[in-house]
Specification:
Order of helices and strands: EEHEHHHEHEHEEHHEH
Strand content: 5-15%
Largest sheet: 6 strands, parallel
Low-confidence stretches: 2-8, 14-21
Distance between the termini: 27 Å
Number of helices: 9
Mean pLDDT: 88
Length: 239
């Protein structure tokens, strides 16, 4: 038999978790964070989680763009940095997340996607969750994917410049010869650049996971989408 994983993490590689009474119709809101390297499959799984459990999907990119469009104080601050080609500081991002959470109310469920990425962000987020009445998170779902698989996923991506639709040379090839002839590879979808992004992710992921201790569930993201979803669903139903 496979030896048990070391604490403090729970690891799922197809075995799942014990069943529980929770269902997608359960009234108790889920408060989740999903994390993983670029191309780990977060977007696909976020869609499934929000549909099944009614969580509000909170993507930092979407929240930033909305705050800028709405002209909020933190949105204006973010726009200044974005217009200057600078990274938006953590303090501004946290301010935007705080505004969104305050607007939701502490009795709603959420799925936070792409944040926190560092230990300091995790600490700031925990303080904001307390301040806004949410208290904390139930689980942190970490999609664990091998570096080689991530490189293959990214470097094989192709985009239709006319429609924005995405394809993959291996996993989702384009069947229309006319569309296939105009597909392009994004400039940052090269092995060199994805390895840089992956190194930045790995530099901080362990510290972030340690901040949440036994709330972190590592899910083997190397498998088929439906297999990954089965484990994630069982995690959510077990809360």
């Amino acid at each position: 038999p496979r030896p048990p994983p070391p604490p403090p993490f729970t690891r799922l590689r197809g075995g799942g978790v014990p069943p529980s009474a929770r269902t997608s119709l359960d009234a108790s809101p889920l408060r989740l964070i999903i994390t993983g390297a670029p191309a780990s499959g977060k977007g696909t799984q976020c869609s499934k989680i929000t549909r099944a459990f009614g969580c509000k999907h909170l993507s930092t990119g979407d929240m930033l763009r909305q705050a800028v469009a709405d002209g909020t104080e933190v949105g204006k601050a973010a726009k200044e940095h974005m217009d200057a080609g600078e990274l938006v500081p953590d303090s501004v991002v946290i301010g935007i997340i705080k505004d969104v959470l305050k607007g939701m109310g502490g009795d709603e469920g959420f799925l936070l996607d792409g944040f926190p990425r560092t230990l300091s962000q995790a600490e700031s987020l925990n303080a904001v969750l307390e301040e806004t009445g949410f208290g904390g998170v139930d689980k942190v779902i970490y999609l664990d994917v091998d570096a080689g698989a991530l490189v293959e996923r990214v470097t094989g991506r192709r985009v239709d410049p006319e429609t924005g639709d995405s394809y993959h040379v291996k996993f989702n090839p384009c069947s229309d010869p006319t569309v296939a002839s105009r597909l392009v590879q994004r400039s940052d979808d090269t092995e060199e650049k994805v390895l840089v992004r992956l190194a930045a992710f790995k530099e901080n992921v362990d510290a972030v996971n340690e901040a949440y201790g036994d709330k972190v569930v590592r899910v083997d993201g190397n498998r088929a989408v439906d297999d990954v979803w089965r484990d994630i669903r069982e995690v959510c139903e077990g809360i």
